[in-house]
Here is the input.
Amino acid sequence: MLHSLDPRINRLGLPDAPPPPPDKALLDQFETYEVFHQKKEGTAYVYVGPVHAPSADVAFLFAKEQYSRRFPCTGMWVVPTASIQLTGYVGDTESVYDTLPDDRGEVPATAPSEEAQDAAAYAAGEEDYDIFHLKKRGKAHTHVGKVRAATPGQALQIAKAVFGEQRPVVNVWVVRSADVLHSEEEDKDMWATNPEKKYREAMAYRVQDRIERFKQEQQPNAPQA
Amino acid sequence: MNQAALKNLLYRLADDQLILGHRNSEWNGLGPILEEDIAFSSMAQDKLGHSLQLYLLLNQLGEAEPDTVAFTRNAPQFHCCQLVELPIGEYDFSLIRHFLYDHAELLRFEALGQSSYEPLAQVARKLKGELKYHVLHANTWVKRLGSSTEEAIARLQQSLDYTLPYALGLFEKTEQEEAIIAEGIFIGEDALKARWEESIRAILSQTALQMPDLQILTPVYGGRTGEHTEFLQPLLDEMAEVFRLDPTADW
Amino acid sequence: MYGGGNTFEAPVKADGLENEDPILLAEFEARIARGEKIEPSDWMPALYRKQLIRMIEQHAHSEIIGSLPEGTWITRAPGFRRKMAQMAKVQDEVGHAQLLYSAAETLGKTREQMLSDLINGKSKYSNVFNYPTPTWADSNVISWLIDAGAIVNQLANAKGSYGPYCRALDRICAEEAFHLKYGHDAVTHMATGTPTQRRMMQEALNRWWPAIMTFFGPADKMSTHTEILMRWKVKMATNDDCRQQFLDMYVPKIWELGLTLPDPNLHKNEETGQWEFTEPDWEDFKRVINGDGPCNKERLAVRRAAEENGAWVRRALLSPQAKYVKPLA
Here is the structure.
């Protein structure tokens, strides 16, 4: 049996020389979900990274600890990677909207009332899409708003009309809102104690005083403070 | 307020959290998938944090410092139930223990939010959000695994059958029970157990798992009065191995 | 927790570049020269992709394996403060592995493939984790000095050219700030504590110093290959630069605690501003990284066991409808 310095490992009772395992099958680690967090009440949701998970509800459990245990958070969205439609990437000073063919989905100049729009849109089989912009390569996608459309392609066109003024826009993600799992409003308290977990913050460890005191003690002839 | 009754309750709560937090930390780096490894560790840290807050309440009542209390007592002086002492086993056992324990923990602290001992009520109310996540985590896993493959269902069922008598030990009453209820410190173990049973049954009924008849099970008692399994003393020796090298040292 | 010692393998040949489309290659290089990041769906030379996958993957492996030497003390950390911090730190290492595997995945290698290569011994990880942590003090030395070394390396790499790697490193560096302070705090308490503590710490430092000196890898051979990787901002600093920076920042901090380092030649040459030291035993380093170190076997056995013991869980949860798509960013 393998003998370890780690008592936990000894309790596993591992063989000394286990045979090499077979290669993992594809999806042994599940699909991926992309995660967005809200750092502060009222601010936009920002992309933080993916998790591997078997389903959206488990993805949320994972995302919550992987992406919000060490930082303030007031909400989290989880989206299957496969549900995200994205444009190509352009340079840091450009807008990817400029590269889109400018044909469909003009926004009417005088908008009808919101309720009337809603009714008409849903009757026409339209639904909400969330739009995310990347402002600079290497940074994170940020939620800019919702549009209503019949297809992701149309949603992108409408996003161009609505958010196209913003610049630069290096890349756009379009997500059917129904595919987004949102943390519940009443579950915000799950993050309430984050700021109190000081033991995992650099700020909690201040040793300079101790070091200075030690240095003083090492010099017996040093003048007393 | 009846100090003996209060301390008795606080020791039970704190020791449970400490020992289970310690046990669950053993999974760190060894979990079934990276993301779950992280989530499980967070919950173990939370339990440690809860025990620390409870030991601090005891400290305010004249007991020794949290480190002294946690790292220098021996098994007979511990008031944890035997459920939390058991080795981590395989993931099905650790998950079922987490499920059974955390449901009780959430309900216990919900009730303690109304405790007549205000410092305890404050701690209990503060932990609500953390415990909500713990139970959401446990429920999601039990529901998913409990209605998945035959292999997983069989494992979970076996762990459930094995663990339930120990879980009933969570509700072992001490000689202070009457005083605790009379003083309004806590609703009492019987009331908690009734809520707990309903709460776990509601989740298990959504799975392929069978909930045994609790009436015919023999609860594993003894932990609350210092009778423990063979696993607790080695756990404590291991936990305090460094601390006891030099008890005067500041680590 | 990762240094430069990773690239101690047959280097990828810089050839094959002539097979790349010269126009696309020029655009790619111009983008990097402008200071823009490369994102996953951009065109990139095969060599860039290959080298980045190897580097990020090794970094990820170093995190997951790196959780084990400190994990050795997770159940024995003395006192609440240390116990909770040790748990949080080991947890972070696992979290960093998760972030890094995800970044590498965007380049086209699945996490399954990477984990398989790790547990089958086909991939390397930072060699320092093949050494044991026989005492609590050894764990403290890792928390402080190995993490300090890793931060030197990671801060440099965070300025690299690949967007997903930079995003992961930004988060990792933010989390590592805690590791460094925690490690320094723990070492300081030992070094300024009781005679027992002091002795434990000095012995641990003596044990770990040779490994620490190899952490950044041997001096780079300045080949065309290295030059290209630096131009493409894959490699951001030479191994020697990182080592010098580390020595400059941390040797004085070690000495001020009254601790000594087991290298009589270690000193800063005030004329050159460079640290001089006894050349590490690179033959021994090679031997260990190729599998013959004190803990190589155990590290892989533990990782295999973790994967194997969790297999039933993953089998049970996998949806038959699942379809692999690589993460986006």
